[in-house]
Structures are given as structure tokens and as C-alpha cells.
Amino acid sequence: xxxxxxxxxxxxxxxxxxxxxxxxxxxxxxxxxxxxxxxxxxxxxxxxxxxxxxxxxxxxxxxxxxxxxxxxxxxx
Length: 76
Ligand SMILES: [Zn+2]
Known about the structure:
By secondary structure, the protein is mostly beta strands. The chain has a domain at 21-72. It is 0% helix and 39% strand. The chain has strands spanning 16-20, 22-23, 30-31, 33-35, 41-42, 46-47, 54-62, 68-72. Strands 1, 4, 7 and 8 form a 4-stranded antiparallel sheet that branches. A two-stranded antiparallel sheet has the order 2-3. Strand 2 (22-23) and strand 3 form a beta hairpin. The protein is elongated and about 45 Å long. The relative contact order is 0.31. Zinc ion binds at residues 9, 11-12, 14, 62, 64-65, 67.
């Protein structure tokens, strides 16, 4: 576990479980990504992503109220 791990839900104090955002586009399963900046549409690829920073999303879920806490950590 990392230092970002919360034992207790920020909303209700319930127990948090580890997970991640899933990206299942085109039948390929990948971890969801945080992308820098506002979304810009592209007629070719759906969204323009060239030159943007992308980080994998880790998601922690409260087992009591369902609150999600998302992290997109710098990968260094
Ligand atoms: Zn909660």
C-alpha cells in the first residue's frame, strides 16, 4: 500500500477498498487514464491527446456509502 491509502472514507468514515478505473474501449481492457487539460474533440480519434500528460487512475471505494476517491499519481 502507498502513502496515499485512506483507511477510512472521507465522507462517512467507512472502510475503503482498493480498485482502479477501467477503460474497456474497443474490447481492450486497460486502466483508465487521467488526461491533462480540457477535452478537445478530434474527427479522427474522438479526442485530441497529442502532447498531453496521461496518468493511470487508481480508485478507492467506500464499502458503506460508495464514495470514490481517485488518484492519478506521477509515474516516476
Ligand atoms: Zn463512505
